[in-house]
Amino acid sequence: MALAHANPADAESGRERILHRAAELFLARGYAETSLRTIADAAEMRPASIYYHFESKDHLLTEILDRGIDGVMTAFDEAEKRVEGVTDGRTRLNAHVAGHMHALFANQVFTAAHITIFPFIPDTVRARAVPQRDEYEARWTELLEGIATQLPKQAVAYIRLSLFGAMNSSLHWFDPANGTVDKLAAAIVATLWNGIESHQ
User: Fold this and answer.
1) What is the pLDDT of residues 6-63, one digit of tens each?
2) What string of H, E and C letters represents the secondary structure of 62-84?
3) CATH fold of the domain at 1-54
4) What's the distance, CA 29 to chain centroid?
5) CA–CA distances in Å: residue 30 to residues 116, 127, 129
6) CB under 8 Å to 172, separation ≥6 — which residues?
7) pLDDT tens, 149-174?
8) At the fourth CATH level, which superfamily is domain 66-197?
């Protein structure tokens, strides 16, 4: 099999191009309907060249999913540092929602791909990605349980699901050019907080 991009700089450029074009195509067409040849055409390279960077389409998908979740995990860690020692629940929640939202739009093609196509990917790839997703959800559950201390665990689970729905769906309709991500995050928190506070 011929190898392409012997130059390290070219190889890195090719790898990133493949990842971005693949994520865009998976979003537009679906994973099963997107062939490596289609990805290669979009990335302006020969199909065989993709194998220089990725063993298979599943390995390519795995890296896209990893990038999608890594961005929000890092944002959660950074939000934790910003509110270290803060006891006000709304302030803590706002920091985390804003962090998640900024990560979504900074890493948009990968997070959007992760969120949108996850239910339709091969079982083997999904099984590998689930532990990271579960870890991220568990961190949000712990955060919300610490804020909404009077609510039963099931109610907190519903709040987390509603919050994720509100945050993640914004990828499909919110244009940062028409408003700031921070203002959108504050609006989501304000809406959610009215419900939490009424039970405290």
Assistant:
1) 333 344 488 999 999 999 999 999 999 999 999 999 999 998 899 999 999 999 999 9
2) HHHHHHHHHHHHHHHHHHHHHCC
3) Arc Repressor Mutant, subunit A (1.10.10)
4) 19
5) 9, 19, 18
6) 112
7) 888 999 999 999 999 999 999 988 99
8) Tetracycline Repressor, domain 2 (1.10.357.10)
